[in-house]
Design the sequence.
């Protein structure tokens, strides 16, 4: 929001200052990470290929259609640098969709292959050790964590201190589509943090910590059941991935439908809303 000041001149020659507030248009922002967990695992069991890109593009097209008067943006986001740089330099985010890998305490954006400029520095992804678990190195570069000192050789606990709540509108909606970012469901259907090992309080989850940092609006995350709870792309009657509605669903729900014709399902039924 900005303010413009101007002067009004009356017939008697007097003048008066007045100002009006200029409201920035809402921005719908879509971010997507790499399909692999890290470049050397390309083609492995968790590699979604270009699936995140395709579903992000579908969401972006929906935003353009439904919110033509808004600013609609989409960005490839393979590193924590990209994540904070893009969000913090975007104004008035009303909706943010994030498609990437994840777990209880963070998101994994995957890293990148080839050369990529981060700020003024050009890095060669093919020469980076993406499994280096020292602070500021490969694993840290491709992940955003709220328990960094637990997973890495790091003095930094949470990276969310870098996030600027001022980039968001007064009532934003944030959607995390990746695995386990909002915790899991126990075998009894209770919302917990993690099944194996058992961590009960879902307030530990990255989705909760993100919502607390933004401090306004709502954060939504898909929450599946079981120790291997995660997210999957929807599928058609031939079990082929479908990206057109920009939605993913919990893996256990997909399995319950034999991974067939899940495009008819409404993903919002499987969201948990944060803050809890």
Sequence:
């Amino acid at each position: 929001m900005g303010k413009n000041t101007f002067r009004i001149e009356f017939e008697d020659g007097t003048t008066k200052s007045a100002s009006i507030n200029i409201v920035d248009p809402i921005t719908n922002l879509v971010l997507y990470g790499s399909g692999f967990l890290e470049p050397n695992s390309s083609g492995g069991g968790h590699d979604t290929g270009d699936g995140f890109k395709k579903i992000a593009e579908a969401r972006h097209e929906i935003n353009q259609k439904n919110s033509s008067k808004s600013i609609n943006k989409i960005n490839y986001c393979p590193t924590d640098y990209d994540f904070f740089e893009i969000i913090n330099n975007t104004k008035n985010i009303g909706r943010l969709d994030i498609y990437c890998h994840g777990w209880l305490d963070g998101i994994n954006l995957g890293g990148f292959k080839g050369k990529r400029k981060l700020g003024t520095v050009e890095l060669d992804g093919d020469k980076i050790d993406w499994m280096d678990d020292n602070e500021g190195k490969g694993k840290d570069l491709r992940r955003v964590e709220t328990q960094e000192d637990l997973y890495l050789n790091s003095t930094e606990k949470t990276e969310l201190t870098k996030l600027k709540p001022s980039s968001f509108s007064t009532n934003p909606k944030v959607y995390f589509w990746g695995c386990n970012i909002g915790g899991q469901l126990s075998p009894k259907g209770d919302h917990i943090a993690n099944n194996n090992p058992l961590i009960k309080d879902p307030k530990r989850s990255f989705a909760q910590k993100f919502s607390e940092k933004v401090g306004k609006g709502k954060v939504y995350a898909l929450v599946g059941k079981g120790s291997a709870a995660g997210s999957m792309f929807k599928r058609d009657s031939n079990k082929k991935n479908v990206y057109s509605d920009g939605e993913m669903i919990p893996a256990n729900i997909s399995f319950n439908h034999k991974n067939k014709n899940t495009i008819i399902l409404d993903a919002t039924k499987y969201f948990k809303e944060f803050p809890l």
